[in-house]
# Entry
Amino acid sequence: MTNSSHKPPLNKQPVAASEDRFRALISATSDIVYSMSADWRVMQELDGRGFLSDTKQPMADWLPKYVPSQDLEKVKTAIDEAIQEKKIFQLEHRVLQADGSPGWTFSRAVPIFNDKGELIEWFGAASDITERKRTEEALREERERSEQQKRLYETITAGTPDLIYVFDLNYRFTYANSALLSMWGKTWDDAIGRNLLENGYEPWHAEMHEREIDHIKATKQAVRGEVAFPHATLGRRIYDYILTPVVNDKGEVEAVAGTTRDVTERKEWELTLARSSEELQTINEEMAAINEEMATTNEEMAATNEELTATNEELAVLNEQLLAAQQKIEEAQMALRLAINAANFGTWFIQSETREFVADARLKEFFGFHPDDEILYDDAINQIHQDYRQQAAELMEATFSKGTRFDMEYPIIGHHDGKTRWVRGIGEIQRSDGKDFFAGVLHEITEKKEDELRKNDFIAMVSHELKTPLTSVKGYTQMLHSKMKRGGDDFAASVLEKANTQVAKMTSMINGFLNVSRLESGKIHIDLQLIDLAELIKEAEEESLATISSHQVVFEPVETTMVNADRDKIEQVIHNLISNAVKYSPGGSIINVACTIVNGMANISIKDQGMGIKPDDLPKIFDRFYRVEGSHMYSISGFGIGLYLCSEIIDRHHGKIWAESELGRGSTFSFGLPLSGQLQNWIADDVCQD
Ligand code: ADP
# Structure
């Protein structure tokens, strides 16, 4: 606009005067000045003042040169409005500065009218507001950023249950998050700008924090603490808090920010944990002890298990064996039953303690009972023939009390039929289920017994018949012997003496048979009387001196020994044993006869130095008709009844007889009798057959 040659032709004088003043104004202002055609299409002139580039020539396409595209529309609109209304154009908008960088301008333009009131030109001024706009923009951005930050903090602090707050140095709250507000039960406006006391803190609590704020201000150090106080709704709680200094760019503390966390649950949990860990410690110790025990037990268990496994295996094997054994036993039992039936045996068993008596049908039949009669032990005993009953009962009792084997032959009188049956009973004590049973079998021997009896009767009869002529023969030979002696016929006398000896031998043999038959038919009688065995020995000594010249018989020692005995029978026993010693030992050897008291029993022993007896034969020599076999026996006469008779006699005296022997060295035959006092007692509480 400094170039006047381009101005439209106006009324020159007034315009020139005002134009001068106008120029001066323009020079004085720092603003950009410009002029536009009436329709703003052409920029006639622009003095850019270094801000925008100057335009000295009218310029049609000024808009894109001065205005950046983003503000073009805004500028056009404002221009159109101004033209339309012929009013002042006024707008803040972006511009492209002279150096090409974007800037801001505040532009005002006034319409210029001619005399006719026609709009002929616009005259404008624009100021550089780039700096202000930048500051405003930065401010706006900053505000926006801080708003955003605040929203972010708000979001964060609202979301946390922790209490977040800021104090100024006068202990007033300048910030409190929603958790703290809700704890107080207050709104932002009620709480912010107030101090601790005003926000309802108790004096001690308020003072505490005030002291801490002072401390932080002085030291710039954070403070951490724990405090318990009542919450508006939750009651008494425990809080952990940290107060930190907020330092400005000068390094001064200008505020104190704090966070507080409710640690009640954590505390409780810690407490519980501490207690639990104590308990745990105790439990652990106990567990350790238990573990040790368990370990030991486990080892033991393992060992036991191994043993058990082994035992189980053994058991399995044993079980199999047991089953096999059971089967065998069953088979054996069956076989036994069949055998017993076949053998026609009756069986019994008696419980030792209760004397409960169990008999099978066959046994009942032997005793003359019906198969289903209920019989007791005593019922059975009572059916035994009275001559044998006592002995049978005694033997039975001996089995119960001493466990001796029962073996006896005896007649039974049938209960219902009155029939006499001879039986042999054999039994012994058996142990089963921890109880003693007297078990046995019974078989009928009536026929055999009747045979024996007939035989015995026959022997007795024969013996008796033989004895009569023999007694006569003995008489005649003795008579003849005396006569020959007197007549001096020594030869005849000696022959007759030998005949006499043979007759005596024969008499003794026949007597032996007679005795056996008497014994067997129960016709032998024991006449007990008090005797001194020493006297019997003395008589035997005298007899042996007279009759035995082949051996040296020594009677020593001989003690006075009183017994109740049948004198003749005991004499016969002694005689028998001495005769055997002579018979079975070599001539010239010594025979020792002794009569002593041993263990409270009268004891008589006859010891020879003869052939002796084999151990196998020893137990049998007292059996009837038993003779030891052997070539040497051929020359020694005998029937095997001597020792049998001895044992029967001693038995009937309740004594015992036995032999000890060494083959080739000699034998000792002994018998013992109860001493008189003992025998009396024995008889008193027991039974002794006459
Ligand atoms: P015997 O009439 O045969 O002598 P005994 O009954 O007296 O009958 O004896 C039975 C058997 O005992 C005899 O046959 C004999 O073998 C044996 N005996 C008996 N006494 C003696 C003894 N003192 N020394 C050796 N053997 C004996």
